[in-house]
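Subject: for your reference before the review

Hello V.,

The reviewers asked for a structural picture of the protein, and I figured it would be easier to keep everything in one thread rather than splitting it across files. Below is the amino acid sequence we used in the manuscript, unchanged from the supplementary table.
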Amino acid sequence: MSFHLIRPEWLWALIPVALLLWMLFNLQRQPGNWQQLIAKPFQKVLLGQEQQQKSFYLPLMGLASLWLIAIIALTGPSFKKVEQPAEKAQQGVVILLDNSLSMLADDLKPNRITRARYQLTDFLTDHPHLSTGLVVYSGSAHVLSPISDDNQTILSLLPTISPTIMPAFGSNALAGINKAIELIQQAKISQGHIIWLLDDIEAHEIPAIKKRLSSTDISLKLLAIGTENGAPIYVPEHGFIKDKQGSIVLAQLPIKNLKNLANAIHSPLYLLGSANFDSSKLAPNRQIANQLSKEEQSEAENKPKTVSHWLDHGAWLLLPLALLVLLSFRRGLIFVWMFLLIPPLAIFSPETFAETSTEDQTVIKEQNKIKFIDILKSDDQLGYESWLNKDYETALDRFNSTDWKAASHFRQGNYAKAQQLFSKEETAIAHYNQGNALAKQHKFSEAQKEFEKALSLDPDLKEAQHNLALTQKIIAKQQAEQQNKEQQEASNKKTDKQSEQESKQQEKQDSNKKNESASEGSEGENSQESQETPRESAEDKSSEQKQNQSKPKQTKNDTKNDTENDTESQKTPGVPPQEDETNDKTDEKESIKQDDSIEGEENSVNNIQKSDQALTEQEQAQRAWLNQIPDNPGLFLRRKFEHQYQQQSATGSSPDNNSDKIW
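And here is what came back from the structure prediction:
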């Protein structure tokens, strides 16, 4: 057994403690004032110097022991060595997956990319001991997962893999090979292996891939996915891919090119058809594909397989150190040492305030109530706490985020200001929020445009789809009401005109009657004619009155019929009148539903507040920030790949794919 210090430089820390103890020892040996006045024979009796020296040396020795033990523990005392591997001798596997649009072809049900995911799931589940990484490529290549012993990471990401997350179209196989080789070299893997899943290869790419692989000792196996007959490529929400002539593209498996590739790189080629495939065939062989030369093998055999390292036993010294610290509590020395060793604690002393009147004490306490944890929080976190407390004014002052400021204005009813702040961003959510703010101001036409802009940026935004449909219904209802109002005004004008004409005709008839009665009275000569004339005039008068009475009735009926015809012309043919009330009620419900949809954010926040009542403030703040992160791994990967693609384009590190094919 040999003794060794792993970190001997810590022994320099013994010099300060030696100087400190020497100074304290000399300070104690100096005579005091009473010793100078009292004779030496009486000093022991009167002063009790032996007892004083004994009580002083104990804490001094305790401090020296604590310091010495702590220094020795930091030097890393060791009594034995342990053997560790000199280098990492495991095999590393990189899965290279073709993630181009042709993988959406459904000649293998449900489609090629899904069958590839199933195959990879079987392989990773059956070979958990392999260190595996994953690279995907289309027009550009990207690392989805570095080489790691934890295959669960790749298994959790497999369901999110889809050609729609790739930033560039095409199938740049050389870029994928370069990225896979780079990943193996960065991991310092001695025996690298690539599992290549693909459904297409161009003839002009084969020489470049052969040249790139010939300079490495990496083994490779190919798995072709698809059939020779092929199938159309259906992209969700976009339809089938067509060529320049407008014909639907058939993604056929180029067997000839794949066989030429396998022969060029000396790799076995497997076909994934409709039948089940044994994924263990893709595993690396026990020996390296390209064997090393004899000199390299002998040099590798002469290298040490393990390296010796001293085992640090300094942690065991914490036990006596803790025991001495506990004994220090007996005389209160620990508090003195803490005061000397940790002086910054005095900075965090509590604030003191002058005494105030009883009325203002509550207000001042609330104003000066600053928690220590608030110092560690950002302004947005503090603003969100005020948001949860419905103190939107304070939240507005604390928020740095423009979105949260706009949301605070929205909650306060300042919809114009909220819409102005939301307009500073050109995202789907920003346009959606602008639409809500405009709808609250009853600017439904402008709100409709904002919802349409949001859907043009993100067609899957269901909230914008719902509010757009409701806004369109409200605009249609307003237009219908405006048309009804105009038609009603026109009908009223027509009725007034007819009434005016009837009144003029009535006045004309009355004046004619007066003239006839006057002429008949002047011409009467005898009594018989005078007697008959009143009868005739009476009969004529009565007949004319009957006619006059019948005319207004007929006019009223005509007016009524015209009004009914106008009303019926405004309604949809074949719809009974009872449906008017139903339609009004439906419109009211739709209007209410629209208000509920626009204010859906408030309801969701209220639900979150109810569920957060049982949580602490720190947990509420943590949950609030976690809720802001979208739970969509596919979206995260898309943003990540877009950023990497922009970097590759800027540096020119990505090989160009000289092909017009986007699949």
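For the response letter, the relevant points are probably these. The chain has 26 helices and 14 strands. The first helix runs from residue 14 to 29.

Happy to draft the paragraph if you're swamped.

O.
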